Amino acid sequence: MMSLRTILLLLSVPSLSSAFSPQLPSTRHALASTTSSSTALPAEIQFVRGLTEKVIPSIKLTRARDGSSGTATFQFSNPNVFDASTSSSGEITGMFLVDDEGEMSTTDVNARFLNGKPQSIESVLILRSPEEWDRFMRFMERYGEENGLGFTKAGQ
Question: Which residues contact 78 (CB under 8 A, 6 or more apart)?
Fold first, then answer.
C-alpha cells in the first residue's frame, strides 16, 4: 500500500511524465513532417523482426529533471503478434522501433496472460542520454503522425 508521502511525491512531480495516446481528429496536434521523401521507411514497432505490430500502444514517458535519462513504457492490448496467423513468423525476441534513421530496441518485454491466453504486452525502453531521448522523440513524431497519436504533457 502506498504511503501518503509517496502519493504526495507522485502528485508533486507531474511535469516529469508525459504520454502519447490516440487523439480524436479534432484534438490531434499538428506535427511537422520530418520525412519529405516518398521512399522513406515508415516508423514501425516490431516484436518479431520483419513483422509490424498493428496495434497502437499507449506510451508513458518519464524523464529525469536534468534531462540525462528517461523511460518509455509501452502498453499493447491484444497485439497482433499473438494472432495465430502470425505465430509462424518467429518468436518475440524484443521490441524494435524501426524507421528511416535506424533501429532502437529493448529486451524488456513482458506478456500478461488471462486464463492461459495472452492479453497484453508491456515493454520498457530505457533512454540513457539526452541524445537517445531526442532520437526517441524523432521516432515518436514519425510514428505518431502515421498512426494518429498525439503528445500530451502531464498536467494538461
Answer: 55, 119, 120
* 92: Cβ contacts below 8 Å, ≥ 6 apart: 47, 48, 81, 109, 111
Task: Name which of 106, 120, 48 is nearest 77 in CA terms.
Answer: 120
Instruction: Give, for all 156 residues of the chain, the pLDDT tens digit.
Output: 443 333 333 333 333 445 655 544 433 333 333 334 456 789 999 999 999 999 999 999 999 999 999 999 999 999 999 998 887 888 999 999 999 999 999 999 999 999 999 999 999 999 999 999 999 999 999 999 999 888 777 776
Residue (of 122, 145, 155, 136) closest to 67 by Cα position: 136
Q: Return the SS3 of 17.
A: strand
The DSSP output letter for 137 is H
Own/partner long-range contacts of 105-111 (Cβ < 8 Å, ≥24 apart) = 109/47, 111/82
- For the full predicted model, state whether its pTM sits above 0.85: no
